[in-house]
Each structure stands twice: as structure tokens, then as C-alpha cells.
Amino acid sequence: MLMQTNNQSVADLLGAWVETDWKSGLIERFRTVWNKPLRDLTNEELASFLRQRIAMAQILAIAESRITDGVDDDTEMYDGELEAAIEFARKSI
């Protein structure tokens, strides 16, 4: 299941990006990576999706795998960002 999910994007899971009148850095970052395969998302991007509760089941599985495997891609805004986002997501489920 994780391998199949890795090949999908958020667009595959939730549908095409819908443009909005709202302008923010967060919205722009999501628009930029919406079609990116989940396996290619950075740790920071995974953390952002988790904090916003987007595609949580699939993103959580990938994020947990990254932590277990010790993947540090040096993209987190602060040390432990992905782990903090995982804890947030677990409490939100």
C-alpha cells in the first residue's frame, strides 16, 4: 500500500488544485507541490500537509516511514518539525 501511495500525488487523492482568491505563502507552496508524487515531497512539505490535515492517512504513513528510516533531507524549518507534525496528526485522527 505504501509503495502505491508513494507514486500518487495529493491531486490523485483529493482532486485537481482549485484556484482561490486567497493569497498566502502557504497556499502558493501547496499549489506548487499539489501534483508532486508523495515520495518526492520534502520533510517540510510533509509536515505542512500534516499540520493542515491534508491527505493525512497517506502523508502520515510516509512521514512515519521517513522518521523510522532516519531520513533527514535538511528541509525542516526547525529540528524535529516532521516529528512534531506527526504527533499533531496522531492527535487529530
In short:
The protein has 93 residues and is an all-alpha fold. The chain has six helices and no strands.
Question: What shape does the CA trace take?
Answer: globular
How many alpha or pi helices?
Answer: 6
Kindly, what is the distance between the CA atoms of the first and last residues, rounded to a whole number of angstroms? 19 Å
Would you count the extended β strands for me? Answer: 0
Main pleated-sheet profile: none
Category by helix and strand content: mainly alpha
Instruction: Using the CA coordinates, give the radius of gyration.
Output: 13 Å
Mean of residue pLDDT? Answer: 93
Assess the beta-strand content as a share of residues. under 5%
Helix content: 55-70%
N-to-C order of helices and strands: HHHHHH
Contiguous uncertain segments of 5+ residues: none
Topology:
Elements: H1 2-7, H2 10-14, H3 25-33, H4 43-51, H5 56-69, H6 81-92
Structure characterization notes:
The protein is mainly α. The chain is 59% helix and 0% strand. It has six helices and no strands. Helix 4 packs antiparallel against helix 5, helix 4 packs parallel to helix 6 and helix 5 (56-69) runs antiparallel to helix 6 (81-92). The protein is globular and about 35 Å long. The mean pLDDT is 93.
Main attributes of the structure:
mainly alpha, globular, 93 residues
